[in-house]
Write a structure and sequence with these properties.
heterodimer, A: 588 residues, eight-stranded mixed β-sheet, six-stranded antiparallel β-sheet, 13 helices, globular, B: mainly alpha, 38% helix
């Protein structure tokens, strides 16, 4: 039997990037805001302490900062004919845990999606005709345009101090930046990171091939910076402990560095940690959320009434919360009806590795977003005629780290162990450079999320089930991108190269990317989207759902920049419209 | 030192912080922070084995030393402490699948793409697997155990296990090989605080500087060798700080 707590104006589920931004901006208006986070409190000084942060085994391999699967996991299968089984040990993707969420352990690659990405369905059909669209796709245009989101991208980038070089300032192409990007109103808040030797080779080789290389935008920032909230950051030291780690230098943009110092001073804000929200409570008619129920670390159940509920957990867990709470109609792939769980997508890799004769790449001198990129093969920046696929990816030569448990490359054909292997490990560590692809994944009728019929979490709630595989469209795209990458690696001077391939079914085992998107997508039609253009539930208008769960399909970039932009976009609608007149912001 | 840290509070009661509303932890009116609060790993003790029996130590020593032999490039797996590392890992939370979802059902034939689908813990895996290896060796090599085989015999058997061709009695040789291989790599390259990578031998092999955490000078000098020796969480032997 749960006990009822005093009402709050706003309850936020999950205190990561989206939750902390929402909490600060809403508490600033004087509203009583409580954020309920199932993981622990985390701060830089204690939890990412410089004496303990650079520990590959603890954080990189044993995954100390991540959600324990025992608490919640996902069941997975490749298609509807299989039986999904729980992911018992995280592999393909790594959901975060605790205050700061994935904003703690991310690499910091902070992109804007391209203007074409927001209307990819219309754009591709206009340019190539209906026949280019892949079989069984459920690709749909976003309900917002790049131009509408521009100022929200800008606010997130200035919040986070992103380091980069503009390629398009108010329509003027800028040397040294990405000429394909949408127009931005002003320069990045901080200059780009310095690049290493491999990036210098890439930049030269790519330019010689007619591509347009540029330093990729980074949330490991290049100089000291104080953001508009008054939070200060320090320059990145290229320590090579970004992804999977907290930053001890206050150099990575995170809720800890960019929001929490001011959020925690707001007198109307409270954070409750180690409390797991079990469901959003609805009124008898199901049209209004009355608050949330959560279980604290002692197993006690509490009801937190609230006027407004913001789902700010990791995208996958937002979707599950909606399914468990009965918010929106669950997606049924057989009938292609329903919306919650629909259009789950991911990210697809590709690229080529080059083994050089003689180089000192010093891969340990790295940052999560250090890298030189080229966008010539992203989205529809190139002619897709005759290629047989939709989409593309950003191509990047990067080192995120040289941590040796996971990174000790050897050339193809080397034995897996023994003296020859050991010698190859020694001889190769300094001589490998990679050109990798961050590829788009389209949405399909058979790739979706629903509740698992068998497996349950410790509280007895069904786990969420993921049905996903790379489709032919993505496999063709990845293979084509790998060939382009291989050309560049060769031009960089590699003696031997190896292309990566999407072979076999998608597997939960090797790490690929924590860019899980969709499941609660935004749209202009309530029959094909779970939330409207302001991330407001069509069915329960006092519930808003943040995160990459809103992406109708995934673009060829890391998602966080767009997640941040959507947060400010939704925030403006909540503050400017919803709070003045609570109700549906878009009429169905 | 008598100070109350956040995590000590976790195990006590959060009532103090909570103004009588709810359990869990509540934070408001400023960042919670106390001086010198940090959560370092516990350095391993170099003394008695915590999980392995003497026979198991002999077998694992022999295996890790074939996977990473001692040679002119430096210490191998045994000398680097990989066996100690694995022993301490198995004795700790890793050994019991701590934190992993282990509810059934466990279907008999999961797809390879579905990953770990066995309730067998790393401790059980080593105990059962090494026993099976011992039985296999005694039956195949006239009563000898793995540690007493020649290097050539050891390499041939490990290769057969890796390929799934060696049929250990009642145990999947490939999964035993995969576990030892992964843990050996971890031990060879993890921070020495965990018992392996002795004298940072793995880091020296590849030229990884360890925990130095600041390479702005390296970025400024592309394609130049890095000359400083590695540093671990507990410092460097030259500083007199390693156990």
């Amino acid at each position: 039997m749960s006990r009822r707590l005093p009402r709050k104006a706003v309850v936020i589920v999950g205190l990561g990037w989206t939750g902390s931004i929402m909490a600060y901006e809403l508490a600033k208006t004087g509203l009583d805001v409580v954020a309920i986070e199932r993981g622990p409190w985390r701060d830089t000084a204690s939890d990412f302490n410089i004496g303990t942060a650079a520990d590959e085994l603890r954080y990189g391999i044993r995954l100390d900062l991540f959600l324990r699967t025992k608490q919640e996991t996902i069941t997975a299968r490749n298609n509807m004919s299989q039986t999904a089984l729980p992911i018992r040990r995280w592999g393909a993707f790594l959901p975060g845990n605790g205050v700061g969420g994935a904003g703690v352990h991310w690499n910091g690659q902070t992109w804007r999606f391209l203007p074409d990405d927001f209307r990819i369905r219309s754009h591709m059909i206009e340019r190539y005709g209906e026949k280019i669209m892949p079989a069984d796709n459920t690709i749909q245009d976003w309900p917002v345009s790049y131009d509408e989101l521009e100022s929200s991208y800008d606010r997130f980038e200035y919040l986070a101090g992103i380091s980069g070089k503009a390629g398009n300032l108010r329509g003027q192409i800028q040397p040294g930046g990405n000429p394909f990007e949408g127009a931005r109103m002003r320069e990045f808040p901080t200059p780009p990171l310095k690049q290493g030797y491999a990036q210098d080779l890439f930049t030269k080789a790519a330019a010689e091939k007619g591509l347009h290389p540029f330093p990729r935008p980074s949330a490991n920032i290049s100089t000291a910076y104080t953001n508009p909230y008054g939070c200060s950051m320090a320059p990145c030291t290229y320590c090579g402990f970004c992804e999977r780690f907290g930053c001890a230098n206050y150099s990575k943009s995170t809720p800890q560095t960019c929001v929490l110092p001011v959020l925690m001073r707001e007198p109307t804000f409270e954070a409750r940690t180690e409390c797991e929200v079990t469901k959003v409570n609805l009124s008898a008619d199901g049209k209004r959320a009355t608050g949330v129920t959560y279980v604290d670390r002692n197993g006690e159940e509490w009801e937190q009434p609230a006027d407004l509920v913001l789902l700010c957990a990791y995208g996958l867990f937002n979707v599950r919360m909606m399914l468990l709470s009965g918010i929106g109609k669950p997606y049924d792939p057989n009938r292609n009806e329903g919306v919650v769980g629909r259009n789950y997508a991911y990210q697809c890799g590709g690229g080529a590795t080059g083994y050089f004769e003689d180089a000192k790449f010093n891969p340990f001198a790295a940052a999560g977003s250090l890298g030189a990129a080229a966008d010539d093969y992203n989205s529809d920046n190139f002619d897709h005629g005759g290629l047989g696929f939709v989409g593309g990816g950003s191509m990047t030569c990067a080192y995120t780290n040289g941590r040796p448990i996971a990174y000790h490359p050897v050339p193809p054909g080397t034995p897996n162990w023994g003296s020859k292997w050991k010698r190859a490990v020694r001889d190769t560590y300094q001589r490998v450079a990679n050109v990798g692809v961050q590829g788009s994944v389209m949405s399909y009728r058979g790739c979706y999320l629903d509740l698992d019929p068998t497996y349950k979490d410790p509280l007895g709630r069904p786990l969420m089930r993921m049905t996903f595989d790379y489709q032919d469209n993505e496999r063709k795209m990845s293979a084509w991108m790998s060939e382009r990458s291989n050309e560049v690696v060769k031009a960089m001077g590699a003696k031997q190269t190896q292309m990566s391939r999407l072979n076999g079914p998608w597997s939960v085992v090797p790490y690929q990317t924590t860019h899980n998107t969709g499941g609660a997508v935004m749209g202009s039609n309530p029959k094909t989207s779970a939330v409207n253009r302001y991330l407001q539930s069509w069915d329960v208008p006092n519930v808003f759902v943040m995160g990459a769960s809103a992406f109708p399909q995934n673009a060829g970039y890391n998602p966080t920049g767009t997640v941040g932009a959507l947060t400010y976009w939704a925030l403006d609608a909540i503050v400017g419209q919803y709070l003045k007149n609570p109700g549906a912001l878009v009429q169905a | 030192m008598n100070r109350t840290t956040r995590r000590q509070l976790l195990s006590a009661s959060a009532l103090v912080a909570l103004t009588g509303t709810a359990f869990g932890r509540s934070f408001r009116n400023g960042l919670p922070w106390s001086p010198n609060e940090a959560y370092p790993p516990s350095p391993i003790t170099p003394r008695a084995w915590q999980f392995f029996s003497p026979d198991e130590v002999a077998a694992v020593d022999a295996i890790v030393d074939r996977l990473i032999p001692s040679d002119d490039l430096g210490a191998g797996g045994r000398e680097a402490g990989c066996t100690v590392f694995i022993d301490r890992q198995l004795a700790g939370p890793y050994g019991v699948h701590d934190g992993l979802y282990m509810d059934g059902p466990f279907p008999p034939n999961p797809l390879p793409s579905q990953g770990l689908q066995s309730p067998v813990t790393p401790r059980q895996q080593y105990r059962q697997g090494l026993a099976a290896l011992s039985a296999y060796c005694k039956a195949t090599y006239a009563g000898r155990v793995f540690a007493s085989l020649s290097h050539e015999e050891q390499d041939a058997l490990l290769t057969a296990m890796e390929k799934g061709e060696a049929k250990l009695p009642g145990y999947d040789g490939r999964s035993l090989f995969a576990a030892i291989y992964a843990n050996t790599i971890e031990g060879y390259f993890a921070d020495p605080v965990y018992g392996g990578n002795r004298d940072m031998v793995g880091w020296k092999l590849v030229g990884f500087p360890g925990t130095r955490y600041d390479y702005r000078d390296v970025i400024d000098k592309p394609n130049q060798p890095y000359m400083l020796p590695p540093v671990a969480m507990q410092g460097r032997p030259a500083w007199g700080q390693l156990p």
